[in-house]
Amino acid sequence: MLKIIRFAPLCILFILSIVSWFTIATTEATAQWMHYVGTGLLLITIVASFIHPRIGKVLTGVTLLLTTFKLAAFTSTITTISYWFGPITFPKYQPLGLGLLVLFVILHFKAILRFLNIRTPDAIAAEQAKAENDNIVQS
Asked: How many Cα atoms sit within 13 Å of 97 on the Cβ side?
């Protein structure tokens, strides 16, 4: 069950993409370059997920990052938000992409730490316990 839940962001992107292209085809909405980028990345990510799941995870994360920062789109209407504090302006982002990115990070937190080669306190404790057991066995 947990393995299926980990594919939730990718499945949500797939469903949104189908709905978006159906809306574009049946209404007067027009596809922008961001829709083509998003669909291309989605297809590459789906194929990569079946061939090599780790590469699929990385590509899903990259796709969600690009979606967050308005370089890919999966909805027919592209909604962006921007914040500013005085002279400091933050980049525009898509709230849907940010939400899916947060969901992805929550579901794949340990894999992201492993990918970035960051050790958690649990991993450090396990390594120390293994080293102590190896020392006892060798003695």
From this structure: 27
Q: How far is CA 133 from the centre of its chain?
A: 38
5-11 LR contacts (CB < 8 Å, sep 24+): 5/107, 6/107, 6/108, 7/49, 8/103, 8/107, 9/60, 9/64, 9/100, 9/101, 9/103, 9/104, 9/107, 10/42, 10/45, 10/46, 10/49, 10/56, 10/60
Residue type (1 letter), 89: T
Handedness of CA 40, 30, 80, 71 (dihedral sign): positive
**Confidence category of residue 135, pLDDT binned at 50, 70, 90:** low
Q: What is the pTM of this model?
A: 0.78
pLDDT per residue as tens digits for the range 37-66:
999 999 999 999 999 988 988 899 999 999
Query: Which residue stretches of 1-139 are H helix?
Result: 2-5, 8-26, 33-51, 53-68, 95-107, 109-115, 121-138
Closest CA to 54 of 108, 122, 119, 117: 108
In the chain, the amino acid numbered 54 is R
**Residue ranges of the domains in the chain?**
2-107
